[in-house]
User: Fold this.
Amino acid sequence: MANKDHTDPARMEKIVSLCKRRGFIFQAGEIYGGLNGVWDYGPLGVELKRNLKDYWWRKTVQERDDVLGMDGSILTMEQVLVSSGHVGGFSDPMVDCKTCKGRFRADNLDGFQCKEKPSVCPGQSPKCDLTEPRQFNLMLQTNFGATGEQIAYLRPETAQSIFCQYKNVLDSNRVKLPFGIAQVGKSFRNEINPRNFTFRSREFEQMEIEYFCHPEDGMRLTDEWLETRLAFYEEIGIPREKLHILDVPDGERAFYSKKTYDIEYEFPFGIQELEGVAYRTDYDIGVHQKGCGKPLEYFDEETKQRFIPHVVEPSAGCDRTVLALICEAFDEETLTDDKGKDDVRTVLRFKPTMAPIKVGIFPLLKKNEEQVRVAREIQKKLQPWMNVFYDDGGAVGRRYRRQDEVGTPYCVTVDFDTLGENGDELKGTVTLRHRDSMEQERISVDALLGWLLERVR
Ligand code: ATP
Assistant:
């Protein structure tokens, strides 16, 4: 639920506008009026999102011995989602407002306003005219076959393909409990009220881990995963003090969950969930064993026991984390020039590892052929290792500002000193300019790649 104390609509408006203006995020189908709750990532947005997903994958799968990756299908068999309980119960309570004809989630009315009588609806005034809540299934259904006789669903979470393949992964990889299976991919929910930019979308990406364990380890591992995930957010640039941990109380957790932590972030529209870390007991494998009628138990070689493994699930939203990264990075800094005039510098202070462009490369003068040649050489040298941006348009100060606005941590400028015209001792060096401090130093062209690699990957 949005916490009013932390809201800053003006800041959010600036962020949304920057995202569009600089090519991070656009509304899907915008030229036709837009598809509600569906978003396209532009050239910079896709780089940011890939950096996040790659980093998550590296930390979660590649740098751990106990987690394996998979990439399941989006189209999901009906039986899978019947067993998991989604067909029967994956719904939100919905109410309609008879005044404005708006449709709202009954458990999340806070912050909504009736389009016709803003002060009245929904739900908060005696005059307000809401229907009784009805259950609304959030799954998006599709049909297979020439006559559409077979129902399938666009998956509402990535988790179910992991549960269904857990036995295949186990049998093909000689792993022992505890071990995890991780997946990054699209999920779809027919949300009643998509809102807050990409925060609540109908198509989104999740980064999920299903961590299988012995029953007696479930509670401890849930706490351990919470700490691991909090450390991850810190590493990507979301400070601990902006995160809130909600220990979801009894009665509000899913009925099968013994413990659930929501990791929440202070978005400009309120404190809202980024990730859930849930101890799901043996519910998932249990319902699929029952549903498919085949044994899915784990056999413990040491104790010779056969049992259904328990599951701890850290489930993060990729789009929500991208949005948190942008919100956290967004800064407007007032600079006073020599003449006492104020100027606002817009900066996205991304960590270099997350920044869509790692380094801007400029010749000081577009017309200086030698500078252009060396700048292009530097570009070619860095390109196989990182995303760089070459720019020779306009004054160099303006070019720095354009990179500040999209969060590029470093810029290098090839100038007269690079080519030795102002004294040979500087030959072979470029100006390296830092986004945050705006300080400039000289670095040799030969050292540049190594220097950057230590910081941007
Ligand atoms: P909410 O309460 O916000 O609807 P949820 O508790 O239903 O979320 P989960 O089912 O636990 O969400 O999904 C795990 C994660 O997937 C969430 O923490 C969130 O980051 C992401 N997620 C879920 N629904 C959406 C959505 N509609 N748009 C974007 N991300 C989402």
Q: What stands out?
A: DSSP finds eleven helices and 24 strands in the chain.
